[in-house]
Amino acid sequence: MKKARVVITGIGVVAPNGGCLSEFWDNVLTCKSGIGTISLFKHPDFPVRYAGEVKKFRLSKYTDGRFKPLRLSRHAQFALATTKMAIDHAGVTPELLREYDPFPIVIGISTSAMEVIERNEDVLISKGPLRVSPFGVGACQPHAAACAIADFLGVRTQRITLSSACSAGLDAVAYCAGLVASGRADIALAGGADAPITPLSMASFARAGLASDFDVPPERSSRPFDLYRKGGLISEGAGVVVLESLDHAVRRGAFPWLEILGYGNTADDAGAETGSGLRHSMTEALANAGLLPGDIDYINAHGPSHPVIDRVETAMIKDVFGRHAGRMPVSSIKGVTGNPLAASGPLQIAACAMAMRSQRIPPTANYEIADPLCDLDYVPLQPYVMSSHRAIINMHGLGGGNSSLVVGKVDSA
Hints:
The protein is globular, with a radius of gyration of 20 Å. Helix 2 (74-90) crosses helix 6 and helix 7 (168-181) packs across helix 13. By secondary structure, it is an alpha/beta fold. The strands form three sheets. The protein has a ten-stranded mixed sheet, with helices on both faces. Strands 2-3 form a two-stranded antiparallel sheet. It has a two-stranded antiparallel sheet with strand order 11-12. Strand 13 (390-397) and strand 14 (401-408) form a beta hairpin. Helices cover 32% and strands 19% of the residues. The protein has two domains: 6-251, Thiolase/Chalcone synthase (Peroxisomal Thiolase, Chain A, domain 1), CATH 3.40.47.10; 264-408, Thiolase/Chalcone synthase (Peroxisomal Thiolase, Chain A, domain 1, 3-Layer(aba) Sandwich). The two termini are 19 Å apart.
């Protein structure tokens, strides 16, 4: 069976370094960080001080009065906002999407609505069970973001939620791409959202060694592949994309920003180092795309600024790409975004789309001192002006999951 070519025609972004696609991309190129001192909660002697918060977010800017912020989790609000941005960017309306029956919606999440859980626990303890919000149950379900999007669009839909840690947003896009490629849908929506900056979540990340305190200014704390990187920086945000078959996009005159070419997903080998499964996910993604390593001209790396994971990802890239690894740029946008968990993959897709459109490879912020064990071309501090036609996007998640997505510039129908 001939598979349809799958393209992205709309992109919505809410990130610590930008509240829309253009602002996000400008700040990626100029290494303007969205990481700062935590303001969403105050707690004395907290083990971490820095995170990547989305600033000045207001749900009312994107939706009508049907959606009350206190009845929705923060990550569901981000998902709604980026959905509105993505469909506007794609040039479609909720009315048009209602003609598709069903219209698939696939959302990836990593954490649940922790701020809702913690807020209601405080109410329970201080005021008793009768004062707990009746909206807490709905807001806390993992499926809440996908449900809110479907309600907002008013469509009959397949609502699917994936939860595979940091890889979830990338996995959601790949799942949706499979629906379109197989002909089960002409158009669909996918992405990822997370909002983990709460006292319990951040304390847990810190105790697990997944969030660190730093002795440098917050904007310099996330340092992918740099010798003095200390650890990951937790952040929040969302990214949503509209996917279509290329034929469908051409028929309605939509601009294809990016083509989905291949996908791979594998776990780390038992007993192997964290991130070692990226070797298999990259190999599988290339095979599914029908490409050789030499066909890739850019890698948008997971690169979370972690002492071990950055080194292992470098080793896996060299293992898969051989001598070609030293001839192509490899960069991480997490120097300015931190790690927004399930939102990471969609934000990296957005960066690749803009890179291919503008012929500029995004830099790695705060990469200043070379690590002998991380010895690839990480595009330090300044973007490269060069054309990219095919890229691979890497994600690694807690628990040892790895995902890779091959994307390409759409040259012809």
